[in-house]
Amino acid sequence: MTAPAQAPVRDAEAAGRRVEDILDRLAATGDRAVCEAAEDLVRTVMDFYGAGLARVLELAGQQGPRAVEGLLGDDLVSGMLVLHDLHPEDLAARIARALGRLPGGPVELAGFDADTGVLRLRAAASSGGCGCSGGASAGDDAGRRAVEDALACFAAEVTRVELEAAGPGEPVLLQIGPRPGAVGAS
Fold first, then answer.
1. Burial tier of 121 (Cβ tally within 10 Å: 0-12, 13-18, 19+)
2. Side-chain half-sphere CA neighbours of 155 within 13 A
3. DSSP 92-134
4. 141/177 Cα distance (integer angstroms)
5. Between 111 and which of 69, 91, 120, 159 could a Cys-Cys bridge form, CB atoms 3.0 to 4.6 Å apart?
């Protein structure tokens, strides 16, 4: 009996989950030789695709920075480069790239714990000067999910995202009053 055909996997995280599921199903059969052969097959395919991706990156680099930038900005390609440990940008640059792609307002990095994989973010100060924040708030599950989705392709090292509220002393609303000495000022 053959397994039903599935739609092609379009992101590295989903592909990884699917491979693990297949390997788990094989392990459940109890046939150790089959499990070892399947794991060897996965390693061989990963090595093959990793070598191909390294070559693609090399050839793109010969074409110039725009070609490489196009690859690094693509979710699927970037996810594969991270998976194969080939992404030329360091973790901080990849996090910044992911955060820069977020809709709904800027966020700023509050900290990253490499030991736990926890990334702390807060809504960036509004550039308009009104004190309003269009970014995600600490209790915003949709905002957290958007950040996690953006990071999945670019920074697999991030295992959890914590969104912080504005810190103490940061104004919620800019208060504008009459300037000193103006008519009607008390």
1. buried
2. 24
3. HHHHHHHHHT-SSS-EEEEEEETTTTEEEEEEPPPTTSS----
4. 36
5. 120
Helices (H), the chain: 12-28, 32-63, 65-72, 75-83, 91-100, 141-154
Give me 165's structure tokens. 């509220």
Of 104, 138, 144, 140, residue with least CA distance to 122:
138
Q: Is the dihedral of CA 67, 68, 72, 76 positive or negative?
A: positive
Mean pLDDT for the chain? Answer: 77
pLDDT, tens digit, for every residue of 95-132? 888 888 777 666 788 888 889 989 888 876 554 444 44
Q: Which class in CATH covers the domain with range 89-165?
A: alpha beta
CA atoms within 13 A on the CB side of 102: 28
Output the six-digit token pair for 24. Answer: 């788990």
In which residue ranges of the chain is CATH 3.30.300 found? 89-165
